[in-house]
Amino acid sequence: MKAYTKEKLREFHQQFSSDDQVLVVISADPDAIASALAVSRLLAGRTAGVTLSNVNQINRPDNLAMIRLLKVPLTPFGDIPVERFGKMVVVDSQPNHGEAMTGLRPQVVIDHHPDGGYRAPFTDIRPNYGATASILTEYLRAARITPAQNLATALFYAIKTDTDDFKRQTLVEDLQAFQYL
């Protein structure tokens, strides 16, 4: 495991305390959904609770099937009392990547898209990676967490989807994460 990822994981965990209620905000697609699930797993037992929320309307049949089959607990952002949460995490996007995320001030941003310039107390942006799910798989491995079947399936599908079966932007790290899962 790369020393860089172990250090990033340590810094990630330092952002949270045991009494934090954490809101993970995504624009729901396979990579964002899987990455949000991985964040939830990484914070299990370390915080008071984690809620996953989507800012977008989910209409695509493949996304709806993923959510249903993997029992992903997503709540529309408009239904969330944001003031209830002490910490906010954004994965697979950044606050300045689109209108839906504008105005959000997350403490944590993890993404594989090009750097949008937003600086959170913790930021891990790796634009050469094919999927944010690859980054989060590295975090899980660094934490010595073996993902349960639903989480592993979500991460596997996310990497496959975001790299278009490894025809798009792909690093050896994406292949290693995929192979591990």
Question: How would you sum up the global shape?
Answer: globular
Helices, by number, come to 6
Question: Helical percent range?
Answer: 25-40%
Task: Note the run of SSEs as H and E.
Answer: HEHEHEEEEHHH
- Flag low-confidence runs: none
Which band does the percent of strand residues land in? Answer: 15-25%
Structural class: alpha/beta
| Average pLDDT for all residues | 95
Radius of gyration: 15 Å
Can you summarize the main beta sheet? 6 strands, parallel
Total strands: the figure is 6
What spatial order of strands do you see in the largest sheet?
3-2-1-4-5-6
Cα-to-Cα separation, first versus last residue = 15 Å
Keywords:
single chain; alpha/beta; six-stranded parallel sheet; 6 helices; 6 strands; globular
Describe the protein.
The chain is of the alpha/beta class and 181 residues long. The protein has six helices and six strands. A six-stranded parallel β-sheet has the order 3-2-1-4-5-6, with helices on one face. Strand 2 (49-54), helix 3 and strand 3 form a beta-alpha-beta unit. Helix 4 packs antiparallel against helix 5 and helix 4 packs across helix 6 (172-180). 43% of the residues are buried. The mean pLDDT is 95.
